[in-house]
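Researcher: I'd like a structural prediction for the single chain below. Treat it as a standalone chain; there are no partners to consider.
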Amino acid sequence: MSYQSEWACSSPPNCTYGKAASWPELVGKKGGETMAVIQRERPDVTGAIIVPQDAVITDDYCCNRVRVFVDCSGSDDCSNATVVSVPKIG
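Model: Treating it as a single chain, here is the predicted structure.
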């Protein structure tokens, strides 16, 4: 998964669709573990981002991005925080 500044959003009609578009089974897992599953199942997702659940985000749609919302409260390491909503393409 990429945190690099060179990442670029792919938007329709430039989207490719793979195995999964959402991962409800990952709610309750750790952020880092969730990102590893997404990378394994959807290598075309080049922008996977761990996001604190109360963060302000844009509403644009990118078919190569997944935001993984986690509960980082009381922790400096969001990759070990718990996923609080269904990760999905967008």
